[in-house]
What does this fold into?
Amino acid sequence: MESCEVAIIGGGAAGLMAAAAAAKAGARVEVFERLNEPGLKLYVTGGGHCNLTRHAAAEDIMAAFGRHGRFMAPALEKLDPEGICQHFAGLGVPTSSEDGVHVFAASGYAEDVVHALEKDCRAGHVCIRTGVRVTGLLVEDGAIRGLEADGQGVGARAVILAAGGCSYPELGSDGSGYALARQAGHEMTEPTPALVPLLSAEPWVGTLAGIALPARLWIQDSKPRTRRITEGPMLFTHHGISGPATLDLSGDVAMALRNGEVAVCVQVMPGWDASAWKIRLEEAAQSDGGRKTLRAILAMSMPARLADALIEREGMNDKMRLAEMSHTNRDRMTAVLGACPIRIRATEGWTRAMVTRGGVRLKEVRPETLESRLVRGLYFAGEVLDLDGPCGGYNLTWAFASGHLAGDAAGHGARGG
It folds into this structure.
């Protein structure tokens, strides 16, 4: 049986980072990637520019991941966002941040990031085997002994499972890592698409395709004390809604959709609730005797097509003057302006999802090393774990940090250190 000291399943961001870290710990490392090239998913991140990380403190990164965020502390302590920037600079890929928040390769090319990771692996004599599918883990007496790849056994003292989730299956994340984790006895939180566009059940939404605006979103009927609100750019598409604010809420929506149709409330001007709009319309009605039309007032604050759609949605006349509006109509209009519910029937699914919500349950993994609590010598890194963050460099930060921690721990563990 062929053998190495550390075998890594998955040649994405987490897997390549883990491979280099394990090699620096002195281990003989092999990476098993089912596609013909490693790192393909990195090419589509950040709009093709690869948003590596963001200028943020480790505490802020953890907070963005929600209630599971504290699990990330040991990984971020060893490699935080600043450390990620320094790491890539050391590999010949300086970083830049035009807005002071989002960090990209200074060249603007995702391929430079992939090539840097491969270069780091080559420096450690890592063997990257592509076009190989891992079909099983070899476990004996509660410890990892290797894996099976394309029907052939490969001995290993440690295995790092960095096979990703289910998002972008054509780029390598096909959910196969979950089957391997289950084989080792691990439980899963059911995978759900996240950072994914949403499909509306209302035809009027599609008529606004192409309109982008700042908005505030939340799930209708969610409890105020626990309500998650996202804010940022929102985009109307031919079939629903997208944009950062939508994507950041989409994981919650996807989970709620398991129980049927969900309504997402859209506040078309962040911070302007129904009472604020009521004051705005009352002031406009008094300023010139109410001669201005409702459409004219709304079009001053939002795209005219959106104003038309909202007026039509409420069954009102776009030529209606403010002085002619009844109190009932004014209340209806201000309510929809402060929180317009859009019925969502589905997400755009795994082929459009950027990350996976769900995965290997964190209670079964040691945060200090990312080693399994069930099988000695089995480690996890990246998206295969039940951790997902918002868009904007958060998830790649976790991929790099977790890969570095798991690789270092596995490398030293395999060497008896």
Summary: The radius of gyration is 25 Å. The chain has 13 helices and 20 strands. The first strand starts at residue 2 and ends at 3.
